[in-house]
Design brief:
The protein is mainly β. The chain has helices at about 20, 250-255, 400-405; strands at about 15, 30, 35-40, 45-50, 55-60, 65-70, 75, 95, 100-105, 115-120, 125-135, 145-155, 165, 170-175, 185-190, 200-210, 215-220, 240, 245-250, 260-270, 280-285, 290-295, 305-310, 315-320, 330-335, 340-345, 350-355, 370, 385-390. Strands 1, 5, 6, 20, 25, 26, 27 and 29 form an eight-stranded antiparallel sheet that branches. Strand 9 and strand 10 (about 115-120) form a beta hairpin. The two termini are about 15 Å apart.
Length: about 400
């Protein structure tokens, strides 16, 4: 096959390269009812206004890497004060053993403010830094995830070589000492199923005799199996609305071909939407639950997902695909009447494919593209990043589709 045949003769009519452009295409309508945070290209935590998209970044191999458009479901931070707050009454931050550890405020934080706090331990007795919050009682079966930022300034000793955090002296709990990097902020994330008894505090450092000097900031507890973007709180629980990016009306029909097409997506995912999964990568839809062509992710544990698509009253069967959270994957599909072919790469670099000859695209009259969410129900956001989404108005050859996901 000639090399030229690996590439489409006709260019895409939609090319959303969020990771490189860091801007929202003018055809996209973006909604979110609250502010939201993300990492900016300077490595600092930023706050986006309501209805403002978030182009997220991360530290990778010592460099700030652009991730693309961040799309998350709504969430709640159960902690009343996500940054240091001292008070005569709860909820507050408490240094339980001031004789063996001291608190210093006004420390530079990951968002560029001076709202972090420093705990200086003197290695003569137990240190314990506690964050109190309004009490709640888990059901004993749901997973909760705690997250916070910590920076090691100095220190070499800890009893049992541990620095532990825990929720009300129980799960979720972890030893985060191995994750620390001197003079660098690290976000610690720990998930677990707490018992069905009242919870009213989270210990950032729990009963350790140590000489460590540690900075803390940005404490968060969520009722889900993974951590979402930081939700600041000051007096009441923090919250974030869901992200809803849409192309509809003439902004949709101007580039969409109703008889055939091909789509390429590069995406990453943080965790399940819920117990049933169904996190959407994208959806071409008429706004209902029948007439849609979609790619989604579904899991029964932390690394098994299934992708599938439907259109009209026809269903495209799904395959099992193995991926890892917070890593990027590529997905491409071409389709027309009774002709559907999908290719994707798994976490080992293997190509997974799916063929179906029952796609009833002739019964399909879509009106919108939903990016990283579904049009109905709870929206089932991706909970991750869309790095790039490209649409071609023709059914590309199988060779061309495979070339896209390299």
């Amino acid at each position: 096959m000639a090399i030229s045949n690996l590439y489409p003769a006709e260019g895409p009519t939609l090319n959303l390269n969020f990771a490189n452009s860091r801007i929202l295409d003018r055809r996209i309508t973006f909604e979110r009812t609250t502010t939201g945070t993300y990492m900016g290209r300077d490595g600092l935590i930023k706050t986006a206004a309501a209805d403002e998209p978030r182009f997220d970044h991360r530290y990778q191999n010592g460099q700030v890497e652009s991730l693309g458009l961040l799309i998350e479901a709504g969430s709640t931070n159960l902690v009343n004060h996500s940054t240091y707050f001292a008070s005569a009454s709860s909820p507050r931050w408490v240094n339980y053993f001031p004789a063996t550890a001291t608190i210093t405020t006004g420390i530079d934080a990951p968002d560029g403010t001076n709202t972090a706090v420093r705990l200086t331990c003197n290695n003569t007795g137990s240190s314990l830094l506690r964050v109190e919050f309004d009490a709640f009682t888990p059901n004993g079966t749901d997973t909760y995830t705690a997250s916070f930022y910590v920076r090691k300034i100095s220190g070499t000793t800890a009893n049992n070589n541990e620095l532990t955090c825990d929720l009300h002296d129980g799960s979720p709990s972890t030893n985060y000492l191995p994750q620390l990097v001197t003079n660098q902020w690290v976000r610690i994330v720990v998930s677990g199923v707490p018992s069905n008894s009242l919870k009213s505090f989270f210990d950032l450092l729990s009963d350790r005799t140590t000489d460590y000097v540690l900075d803390f900031w940005g404490v968060q507890i969520e009722r889900k199996s993974f951590a979402t973007s930081y939700m600041p709180s000051s007096g009441i629980q923090g919250s974030r609305g869901k992200d809803i990016p849409t192309i509809s009306g003439s902004n949709f029909t101007d580039w969409y071909n109703p008889t055939e097409g091909s789509i390429f997506v590069k995406y990453s995912m943080k965790g399940y939407y819920a117990t049933d999964g169904f996190n959407r990568i994208f959806e071409i839809s008429d706004g209902g639950n029948q007439n849609r062509f979609t790619a989604l992710l579904r899991g029964t544990n932390s690394d098994i997902y299934e992708g599938w698509g439907i259109a009209g009253v026809g269903n495209v069967d799904f395959n099992t695909v193995f991926i890892n959270f917070n890593e990027f994957y590529t997905w491409a599909a071409g389709f027309k009447y009774n002709d559907y072919q999908r290719y994707s790469r798994d976490r080992n670099g293997n190509i997974d494919s799916l063929t179906d000859d029952s796609l009833l695209i002739n019964n399909f009259n879509p009106t919108e593209l939903n990016i990283g969410y579904e049009a109905i129900g709870d929206n089932r956001q991706l909970n991750g990043h869309i790095s790039q989404l490209v649409y071609y108005p023709t059914r590309l050859t199988n060779e061309q589709l495979q070339n896209l996901i390299k």
